[in-house]
Every structure is written in C-alpha cells, then in structure tokens.
Design goal:
Layout lengths: L2 E7 L3 H12 L4 E4 L16 E3 L10 H18 L4 E2 L3 E6 L11 H12 L4 E4 H7 L9 E6 L3 E3 L1 H14 L3 E3 L4 E5 L5 E5 L3 E9 L5 H5 L6 E12 L13 E4 L8 E3 L10 E5 L5 E2 L10 H12 L6 E15 L6 E5 L2 E8 L9 H14 L17
Helix pairs in contact: 1-5, 1-8, 2-5, 2-8
Length: about 375
C-alpha cells in the first residue's frame, strides 16, 4: 500500500477543491472517485450555480463565500478558465410570502449579512424591479434585494480546473474506482476500494449523496432529487443574456416552493434555466429517478414559470436532475468522524454548497496540513444535532 498524507473520497465540488489545495501545499494526496468528475450523477452539474456573498442561510457563511470568489479568480488567472460571472443577483420576496428559501427569514438574513460585511447592495420596490427587469412579473407588494457582486459559477468548469491544478501540483487521481470501506485503526487510515487498498494519515470524505453509505455511523443526512429545467423564450434570447438579466431567487406568495434561475448562457437554442426545490420525498443515489417526465415539465411551467416569467414558452429545451444532501437545519457538516479523529466528513450540502466549495477545500487542506483552519467552522459540527 502506498502511503499518503491524505486521501480524498469524492472529487466533486468540495473534493476537487480539497485535493487541489492539499497538493498546492505539498501534501501527498490521493483523490478517488467512482466516476470521472465532472459528471452528471451527483450535485455539481447543470452548467451554472448561483453564487452570492450575503448569505441568507446565515451570516457565518459569508466569509466562506467571499474567500471562494478570491480563489476562483486566482484559479482563472492560473488556468485561463472562465469560472465566475458577477452579473448580479436579485432576491424577490414580500411580507405575505408563502415560500421559504431553506430557512426562515432568508431575505432579512441576506440584508443583515450585507450590512454587517459591507457588501454592496440595493433594496428595490416592485416598480423599480419592473423598470430594470421587465421579464419578472412581480406584484405591487413584492420587493427585492439586488447584489451586484453576486452571479453564477460554472460547476463543471470549476471542478475540471481544480483537478487539473491538483495533478499539476502532484496529486494522484483515481477515477472509476469505488470506495467500499475504510479502517482508521493503528494510527493511520486504510481505504479499501473495488481495486485496491491505500493508506494515509488523514481521510476526507466528500462524497455528497454517497457519503451516508460510506461513513458507517449515525448521521443527519437525507437525499432529495431536484430537477432543473431550461425553457425557450417567446422571442429573442437577448433580454435573458447575462448583461441584461440577473440570477434570481424568488420567494413566491402562493406556494411554499420558491423558484430560482439564471440568465441564458448557451444562445437561442440553450433556453433559460429555472428550477424549484423539492423536499417531500427522500431518495438515495442508487435508486433516484434520473429521467424527467412530461408531466413534471408541464407542471413546472404551469405552476412556476408562466405566472412569473411570461417571456418563456412551454417548450422545454432540456432538463437535468441533481441530488441535494440535506441536514435538518439546512446547514453544512464539516467535522471529524465521531469514531475517528483521522477522518473528516465534509458535506457542504442542502442545496447551497457549491458557492462556498473553494473556501471549504482550502479549510480542509489547512486542517490536514496545519492542524486547523483560519475559517471558523464551529457552526458546522455534527454535535449540534445532539441537542
């Protein structure tokens, strides 16, 4: 068995970031994935992910998001990749909203975080939203928060760039290799896969929806299937381009499900991406339904798209499914395994993890190499679920 300073299981958003950051610091690191990231089986695909600096899920996330933007710009400079587009983000809400975006008080929390960290933003009434972006059919009682420095990142490109850099700095990557277990006895960690056994000082499990099957202990995670839709515009795609249309999160008034979406990045034939979130029926990574039915598409358009984005037609250009790994409080888990100090569980999950992933990867590398992170990770401990 070859010895490593660290093994990273799962090379998606967080795993690719951790592997890159470890290798950059000179650590001997092995990254293992049962597929060949970036891929479409987990949580980090679909062309775009929202990134915002003022985080409505809690102010403690904002330092991670701010650091993530810095890291993405560094990676862009080093690789020539196009990762981050700051075309602005609009959050729409109202006093009588029914939808909840992950946590109660999401809109108010967002504003509070922006004020605390000095993040440039504007508060807009319905008239001003309609004036700037007439494609949103807002009602008179709705209002908005606009953050100019927010936008979207390209998940597949981000993962690919970080894995390229990981190899550049000396990481070993094993693709199409499935981890079947690990043992942390005798002062090290031994990882067993379908093709071999490997030994390391530390193990980072960043396996997303597969994490519950690997860690071998009680956990708070549930897996939920999510669907992303791309609808064709009624006319020109131009009003939906990033220079004219922001990413958005909309806390709707008549349903507990909100919607979110993106500008068009793939031209006229690519459509406009809009999605909602579903937390009624748990699933798992092995049995989840990957296909999207015509009934689902029709219901999405009728209930969520047509009333709010009338510039889009019922014609669905494409769909994609992804997996959310969700905790009861919609927070992350970044903590030692309850049965081994040498094993670190990393699940920046619940549908808002990608924007933070470069900073989480850096924090994990700091824990392994330096013994602790500059980021305050106390809010992400497993023990909070024992209270």
């Amino acid at each position: 068995m070859n010895g490593y300073d660290a093994i990273v299981v799962g090379l998606g958003a967080v795993g690719s970031a951790a592997t890159y950051q470890l290798a950059k610091r000179g650590a001997r690191v092995l990254g293992i994935d049962q597929y060949a990231p970036p891929h479409h089986q987990g949580s980090s695909h679909g062309g775009t992910r929202i990134t915002r600096l003022a985080i409505g899920e809690g102010e403690h996330y904002t330092p991670l998001a701010m650091r993530a933007h810095e890291i993405w710009r560094d990676i862009e400079h080093e690789t020539g990749s196009d990762l981050l587009c700051t075309n602005g983000a609009l959050v729409i809400s109202s006093a009588n909203k029914a939808a909840i975006t992950h946590v109660e008080g999401f809109f108010e929390n967002t504003v509070a975080a922006a004020k605390r960290f000095g993040i440039e933003h504007e508060l807009l009434d319905a008239h001003e939203i309609r004036r700037r972006w007439p494609l949103f059919a807002v009602s008179d009682e709705e209002f908005g928060y606009f953050e100019r420095g927010a936008g979207f990142v390209k998940p597949e490109t981000c993962i690919h760039a970080q894995l390229r850099l990981a190899e550049k700095y000396g990481a070993t990557l094993h693709m199409h290799e499935k981890v079947t277990g690990f043992d942390s006895a005798e002062g090290h960690v031994t990882v067993t896969t379908n093709t071999g056994r490997y030994q390391a000082e530390r193990l980072i499990v960043a396996a997303g929806a597969w994490l519950p099957d690997i860690i071998g202990c009680a956990h708070p995670f549930k897996i939920f299937r999510q669907v992303q839709y791309w609808f064709a515009p009624t006319g020109s795609i131009a009003p939906f381009r990033p220079d004219r249309f922001p990413v958005f999160i909309w806390e709707l008034r008549k349903t507990r499900q909100g919607i979110y979406g993106f500008p068009a990045i793939d031209g006229m034939t690519g459509g406009v991406k809009v999605a909602t979130e579903e937390f009624k029926t748990a699933t798992d990574a092995q049995t989840v339904a990957r296909e999207v039915s015509r009934e689902e598409i029709a219901a999405m358009y009728e209930n969520f798209v047509a009333p709010h984005l009338p510039g889009l037609t019922p014609h669905c250009v494409k769909t994609a499914t992804c997996l959310y790994t969700v905790t009861p409080d919609f927070g992350f888990v970044i903590d030692r395994h309850p049965q081994s100090e040498r094993v670190i569980l990393a699940s920046p999950c619940s549908g808002h993890g990608f924007k933070h992933s470069p900073a989480i990867g850096e924090a994990l590398a700091e824990i392994v190499v330096d013994g602790g992170s500059r980021q305050n990770l106390d809010a992400f401990r497993l023990s909070r679920f024992d209270r």
